[in-house]
Design brief:
By secondary structure, the protein is mostly helical. It folds into 2 domains: 1-79, Rna Polymerase Sigma Factor, Chain: A; 82-156, Arc Repressor Mutant, subunit A (Orthogonal Bundle). Helix content is 74%, strand content 0%. It contains 7 helices and no strands. The protein has helices at residues 4-23, 26-43, 53-75, 89-107, 112-120, 126-133, 137-154. α6 (126-133) crosses α7.
């Protein structure tokens, strides 16, 4: 097994992009990534090599994300974003379209929502998405295209 510093340097960007795909918030993704590597450091001895190291790290990141979301829901009130400027009609239209897409994505059931998010925002290949779910790359490809079709129909 390589030095943990090397593991961190080699996989940081990949794990960060994965976390960003999950939460779509840069500072939250950084928090998830740091917590992921902290947990990985504590349990690196348990890594048995049954999957690729980056898949193991992404599994830790996903579990960390879910845990942190539960904690945030429990202790924090979500704040609504205040508009940064007045009289930006085009921004309002873009925000409305963005909101429609976000709502449609949020309403997708699992695994469609997560597979779509991992593919688009995390830019993960189908093989890695399938591996994360314990499925094949073909399964990931089919789920992604079904999710894409559901989103297109939802935002019409």
């Amino acid at each position: 097994m390589a030095d943990f510093g090397e593991i961190y340097a080699k996989h940081f960007t990949f794990v960060y992009r994965f976390a960003l795909a999950l939460c779509m918030d840069k500072s939250f993704a950084e928090e998830i990534t740091q917590e992921t590597f902290f947990k990985a450091l504590k349990s690196i001895g348990k890594f048995n090599g049954s999957c690729r190291l980056e898949v193991w790290l992404c599994q830790i990141a996903r579990n960390t994300f879910l845990t942190l979301v539960k904690k945030k829901r429990k202790f924090c009130k979500l704040e609504e974003d205040m508009p940064s400027s007045l009289n930006l009609e085009s921004d309002v239209l873009d925000k409305e379209e963005s909101k429609r897409i976000h709502v449609a994505l949020h309403e997708l059931g699992e695994p469609f929502k997560e597979v779509f998010t991992l593919r688009i925002f995390g830019e993960l290949p189908y093989a890695q998405i399938g591996e994360l779910f314990g499925k094949t790359d073909s399964w990931a490809r089919v789920v992604y295209y079904r999710a894409k079709k559901m989103l297109q129909e939802a935002i019409k």
